[in-house]
Amino acid sequence: MVKTQRVTVVGVGAWGTVLALQLLRNGHQVALWSHDTALADELRRSRINQRFLPGFALPDALDIYSDEKAALTGADAVVFVTASPFLRSTIERFIPYLNNDIRILNATKGLEEGTNQTMLDIYQQTLSTDQMQRWALLSGPNLSLEVAQQLPTTTVIASENQTVAHYFQLLFNASTFRVYTNSDVKGVQTAGTLKNVMALAAGILEGLGFGYNARAGLMVRGLAEMTRLGLALGAQRATFYG
Questions:
Q1: Which residue, 125, 158, 194, 240, is most buried by CB atoms nearer than 10 A?
Q2: Residues designated as active site
Q3: Is the pLDDT of residue 100 over 90?
Q4: In a domain, 156, yes or no
């Protein structure tokens, strides 16, 4: 584990709140940012995210802001966890306060509505080349509730800069939250997006009353299709098996 860091988590949805709690458990100083001033005020008062993560207390040590500058003051790292339709505009709000030392982690999945661009595309279009050298993404088969309950979970930090990947690995890694690293950013991003499609398909199969044979077939053929698409997008085959 790295020495105590000051980390700003941008986004108070379930996943953002859970990642903030994970960082607190690891002994770091954490700030949580919401675009909604009223919601930020409510979280500070009630110390529970009733809207997105009911049943889990927000420790007094968790600082909560709705002002970008205040949220990033003294930060060593920032984690963007906003919904994909709002990621671009949120990054642009924070750019004036991203100094030359802050490391940047993306934990948002999916494609941008209207453009179908990836989260990597958005960062490359909004951040400088120097800022992208300090950038990584987090992706994995992670359910927010299970991480909040501290059930065993694995995830992946991907970055072309392995020093940055290792930094975030040490930042988040814990006995119940195992973090791996990978240099194949496109592959990790693509796998993290496409596996949600397969998860929805698995739910449909269960709803239709189909059995384990159908779900096993979906997983095998789904992995094959995901891998083919990933390779066409420039990803590495091995990433989809990890």
A1: 158
A2: 195
A3: no
A4: yes
